[in-house]
Amino acid sequence: xxxxxxxxxxxxxxxxxxxxxxxxxxxxxxxxxxxxxxxxxxxxxxxxxxxxxxxxxxxxxxxxxxxxxxxxxxxxxxxxxxxxxxxxxxxxxxxxxxxxxxxxxxxxxxxxxxxxxxxxxxxxxxxxxxxxxxxxxxxxxxxxxxxxxxxxxxxxxxxxxxxxxxxxxxxxxxxxxxxxxxxxxxxxxxxxxxxxxxxxxxxxxxxxxxxxxxxxxxxxxxxxxxxxxxxxxxxxxxxxxxxxxxxxxxxxxxxxxxxxxxxxxxxxxxxxxxxxxxxxxxxxxxxxxxxxxxxxxxxxxxxxxxxxxxxxxxxxxxxxxxxxxxxxxxxxxxxxxxxxxxxxxxxxxxxxxxxxxxxxxxxxxxxxxxxxxxxxxxxxxxxxxxxxxxxxxxxxxxxxxxxxxxxxxxxxxxxxxxxxxxxxxxxx
Length: 428
Known about the structure:
Blueprint: E1 2-5, E2 15-21, E3 28-29, E4 34-39, E5 44-48, E6 53-58, E7 65-67, E8 71-76, E9 121-124, E10 127-129, H1 138-147, H2 165-170, E11 179-183, E12 186-189, H3 206-221, E13 224-232, H4 234-249, H5 257-270, E14 276-279, E15 284-287, E16 293-299, E17 302-304, E18 307-308, H6 316-331, E19 345-348, E20 368-372, E21 376-381, E22 387-400, H7 406-421
Parallel strand pairs: 16-19, 19-20
Antiparallel strand pairs: 1-8, 2-4, 2-7, 3-6, 4-5, 6-8, 9-10, 11-12, 13-22, 14-15, 16-17, 16-18, 20-22, 21-22
Helix pairs in contact: 5-6, 5-7
């Protein structure tokens, strides 16, 4: 008898929602047959039988949320009962898996759920904080370090008193019970939501919960500011029109995004601070010498951000082909987990939704994001002091002000603008 457990199907995932069940009790299955599918905050995944046998029990139904380690299907493989798993040594008790996932809007950040010794927090009032014997996962310890919270003052609500992210946001145990999220240990009171009419409640989807966590993390940790510039893209429109026919012959639907990505890749090489991350634990800047650009993609299930890898090594049509493929599979939720991670910079095209200007949220741990608005025809004064109608594109660059000064952000934005105004440079 095989007791099939739901396993981690992508770095750090701990739960999934059952999308479809293709088996029933009494069915004969073969090794590799698809049994059911799971929807996660990143991708849809098909789960296959590990052996030949007969389905004897199904411990789930469509819509259920299942967790890593749950026995979801039992299969009679003709070999009798499976032996009990060996217990963990007494000196190292087995710990339940914390119900957290590597949340990501643009690709998740791989996060292990193993309980590791703390690297410690910055000293407070000249007294070092020792958190080594506190149960908390690395993501909780990292958040605590970023927020300068002493974990010893937090009461854990998880298994065996483990500290969860919700406990961290709730603040120190000495805080008033009405307190909710906190910054630097100072509680913020969140009033209860009062309603006076008919309402409908529904649970948040896995993707929406992941987005909420990632946005909260970004807005809590990053000191951001936004720079805005209008760009004359009249020539860009012309050159795209000239290339569309050639692109279609190669099976590529050529949008403006490949030009935006190529311009950003060139500028990122010239301004490496924009392609970096800040390791707050070691107080080091990590300069990334690869250029993987994410594109925020609107789907029926929520915002997802597939990543085009090695943009600097591709030409515009090659970038377009990759974008077409990723966009299609993103909407169909057929992306692989590694296609939404390792981004170094992100572009958000809210212009496709008819929005002219917006200030997008940085995808932590990246340090900048480019927002692209709607292209509109406007009167401008040309070099001969004549008024002419041109196509104007508003760009907004949100930067992490801890690392990037406004002047450096401005120079990067100016370089991207110059490349889009002279798009022939992107084809060299």
